[in-house]
Amino acid sequence: MSSETSDPTGTAAPHGPLRVGLIGYGLAGSVFHAPLIAATDGLRLDTVSTSDPARQAQARAEHPQVRTVDTPQAVLDRAADLDLIVLASPNKTHVPLATAALEAGLPVVVDKPLAATAAEAEKLAALADDRGLLLSVFQNRRWDNDFRTVRKLIEDGALGDIQRFESRFERWRPQPKGGWRESGDPAELGGLLYDLGSHLVDQALTLFGPVVSVYAESDIRRPGAEADDDTFLALTHANGVRSHLWVSATTAMLGPRFRVLGSRAGYVKHGLDPQEAALREGLRPGTEGVEWGVEPESCRGRLGAGSSPQTGGGEPVPTLPGDYPAYYAAIARALREGGRPPVTATEAAAALRVLEAAKRSVAEGRTVRLAG
């Protein structure tokens, strides 16, 4: 039997907050989506679906006005009382639940990856277009502090013509944690290629556009692990830029988060954007006294040419603040005013084509060419 708060159902006024149903309250739902939705003007977290009683209690404790239900269907049954569905559920549920939500007449935000294949993503995009509904993918790391800084340096011409883009999301986790994210079942879409790799490929495409060839290496290194935990991708973009991307849980010494090399200068940045750590600690955007997304000056990347940042080469560059709240602010604006969402399903499909090519490259031991 579903557990609900006493929050009345009612119907939102035309200019009242948009009511959001959130499916899933694990890491993605509780740490990222729910806090960011709750912090966004014009959005109200209305309903959370999770079958775990402890997570239901957690959701009500963290968001006292929310109602909790046991199943995704219980959220979809409330379609007439909701304005947006957010899917923070396991990867294998994204396509069927997004399809059901769109068919129920609801706009949808889906955590990455949108689907297993580009074809599935394109089918969802077509359904959303046919219904005139918003469909967006939560690629929050476009709003990481370091990525925002890289993007500005490129746009300002500080690096000259970009030749090579290196991006790493490395961790040292020698023992598998288990769960569906590390499952070897292909249906689960586990492993780092589709998890962290979705972010790095999306960032590379955002900066440099379409990819014409993909080479990949992928390993399962940890005893007892079932899915890839150490993967490398080499992408060649249509404009000639080469992107080298690493995702790993087995890196004993971490490399720079970014190294971007251009004809005029290079930029090297270590460390991770602080927003995920802040959210995990219970901090929230807009909290009095909290400078959201701001890192210490000691973490700044360095810009220069002909020397190493490790020996003091280059000049420190102020890092732009991280801004995850911008994603849901843009979603609210798109729902109110119409227009393009901050991340489209078509963009997600382009990233999935690269991930699929990477899988083929690993399986066949060759560079895979992409058409178009």
Can you describe this structure in just a few lines?
With 372 residues, the protein is α/β, with parallel strands linked by helices. It has helices spanning 27-38, 53-62, 72-76, 94-103, 118-131, 145-156, 196-208, 275-280, 325-337, 345-364; strands at 18-23, 43-49, 67-69, 84-87, 108-111, 135-138, 162-170, 211-219, 230-237, 242-248, 258-262, 266-269, 301-304, 315-317, 368-369.
Structural descriptors:
372 residues; alpha/beta; 10 helices; 15 strands; 21% strand; disordered N terminus
Would you write up a description of this structure?
This protein is an alpha/beta fold and 372 residues long. Helix content is 31%, strand content 21%. It has helices at residues 27-38, 53-62, 72-76, 94-103, 118-131, 145-156, 196-208, 275-280, 325-337, 345-364, and strands spanning 18-23, 43-49, 67-69, 84-87, 108-111, 135-138, 162-170, 211-219, 230-237, 242-248, 258-262, 266-269, 301-304, 315-317, 368-369. It has a nine-stranded mixed β-sheet. A six-stranded parallel β-sheet has the order 3-2-1-4-5-6, with helices on both faces. The longest helix has 20 residues, at 345-364. It is globular and about 60 Å long. The N and C termini lie far apart (51 Å). Mean pLDDT is 94; it is low at 1-13.
